[in-house]
Design a protein that fits this description.
By secondary structure, the chain is an alpha/beta fold. It contains 17 helices and 13 strands. Strands 3-2-1-4-5-6-7 form a 7-stranded parallel sheet, with helices on both faces. A 6-stranded parallel sheet has the order 10-9-8-11-12-13, with helices on both faces. Residues 1-7, 27-33 and 432-439 have low confidence and may be disordered. One of its GO terms (molecular function) is transferase activity. This is Polysaccharide pyruvyl transferase. Residues 170-368 form the Polysaccharide pyruvyl transferase domain.
């Protein structure tokens, strides 16, 4: 191996090394071009063409099969109670055979009463928005879509591209594929941030011409209307669901003492940016010192944004540990409804925990993330109780909680608004095309 003395020029790259460098540069250039709006439009158009050609070659029946199923594409799930709650709400409102497109076999729990009618289509690459190598998954989905009545994408907070551009664009383009294969395409229960990814925004605008888009809050609807995208104002799917299930361990703990209970959640997603554990530990001590008990309730239990790890850190700091219960397993949505119904208030950094509480008429203080909470708060007149998760917010949360608990009419006001919100949430499931005015 040649030795280069200090100050000497490095030897020039030989032909093999130059070829490797050139290939790498071409790959990076192609990848950058692919994830642009034009690149993704071309890639998905080519994918649709290949899929439809494949279906034509495989067609053997003289006439189309009857459309006898509904297909739903789910969010990531796997440890997220909110994702599970949206899935269960969809099942409760959709009779008959259902094909659920999931990222992994353990991403969701299929309720026992639905297991005979729900089939799982595993599509990890498609769900993650990965273009390379997903051809077999797209073809399998297309086979289902050509005999499907509807294709629904549960949009949640994915569609504006704030988390992942490729996931958002893939879902928008699959709505277009479903429409062209004859299924009624619908995007359900999604938010739209103030600063959406421009490529995701362009993809959604294209999808809006071939699918019905049910946005879940009025502020998201206003943002999309300003961008010229036609949507139908709705509400989160979870508002359509009900039913409670008693969580044995929590119920036993609550029964020991008649003192009122506050449910507190610390979000692992927020914790990645801002450490609020010391401030929330002080909040917990103030709540218990005032004669209340605290249930620390994690909402997402998974690597990357694990609420349980953050809640556990707060629990070990409690000055009165006998008055604090840490829930250490993933509850079912019905169990969360049972707990929140019996709470005097909920403090949370997770939107779907707030929604589950509101379905029970329980008031909430919510920490804002990604611009998706403000619209929910407006629907219930709770704008003063949404706060930014910044250092120093702890005392502000305490004041908001005190005001919320002290407002003796707040539960009644939430209860008055709940029926209209539930009616909005039902819109995607109306069999006839909604008569609502499009925004």
């Amino acid at each position: 191996m040649p030795i280069t003395r200090s100050g000497d020029a490095a030897p020039a790259a030989g032909p093999p090394q130059r070829w490797v460098m050139l290939r790498h540069a071409l790959y990076l250039g192609a990848r950058r071009a692919l994830v642009t709006d034009v690149g993704l439009r071309v890639a998905h158009a080519a994918e649709r063409t290949r899929v439809r050609a494949s279906l034509r070659r495989a067609e053997t029946a003289p006439s189309p099969s009857p459309r006898d199923r509904d297909v739903v594409m789910l969010a990531a799930g796997r440890g997220n109670i909110g994702d599970q709650a949206m899935f269960e709400a969809y099942l409760a409102n959709t009779p008959g055979e259902i094909v659920a497109v999931m990222r992994s076999a353990d991403a969701y729990v299929i309720p026992e009463q639905d297991r005979a009618r729900v089939r799982v289509l595993l599509a990890p690459l498609l769900s993650a928005g990965t273009l390379r190598g997903r051809g077999s998954e797209v073809r399998a989905l297309a086979e289902e879509l050509r005999v499907a009545r509807t294709f629904a994408v549960i949009g949640a907070d994915i569609m504006d591209g704030g988390y992942d551009r490729m996931e958002a664009v893939t879902r928008a383009e699959l709505l277009r594929l479903a429409h062209r294969l004859g299924a009624r395409a619908q995007l359900l229960g999604f938010s739209w941030g103030a600063q959406p990814d421009r490529v995701a925004a362009a993809a959604l605008a294209r999808a809006a011409r071939e699918a019905r888009l049910f946005v879940r809050d009025p502020i998201s609807a206003e943002r999309l209307a300003a961008a010229g995208v036609s949507v139908i104002e709705s509400a989160d799917l979870v508002f359509t669901a009900d039913g409670e299930q008693e969580p044995a361990g929590v119920a036993t703990w609550l029964a020991r003492d008649p003192d009122p209970v506050v449910v507190i959640n610390l979000s692992g997603l927020i914790e990645r940016r801002t450490d609020l554990v010391p401030e929330f530990a002080e909040l917990i001590d103030r709540v218990t010192a005032e004669g209340r008990r605290v249930v620390l309730l994690p909402h997402c239990l998974r690597d990357g944004d694990d609420d349980l790890a953050v809640c556990r850190r707060a629990a070990v700091r409690a000055a009165a540990p006998d008055r604090v219960l840490l829930v250490e397993r993933m509850l079912r949505p019905a169990e969360v409804r049972w707990i929140t119904k019996r709470a005097s208030a909920v403090v949370t950094g997770r939107m779907h925990l707030a929604i589950l509480a509101l379905t029970q008429g329980t008031p909430v203080v919510v920490l804002r993330t990604r611009g998706k909470v403000e619209g929910l708060a407006r629907m219930f007149g709770l704008e003063p109780y949404t706060l930014d998760p910044v250092p120093g917010v702890g005392p502000e949360v305490g004041r908001a909680l005190a005001a919320l608990v002290g407002d003796t009419t707040l539960r009644a006001r939430i209860g008055e608004r709940l029926p209209s919100v539930r009616a909005l949430a039902q819109r995607p499931f109306e069999r006839e095309r909604t008569s609502a005015v499009e925004v």
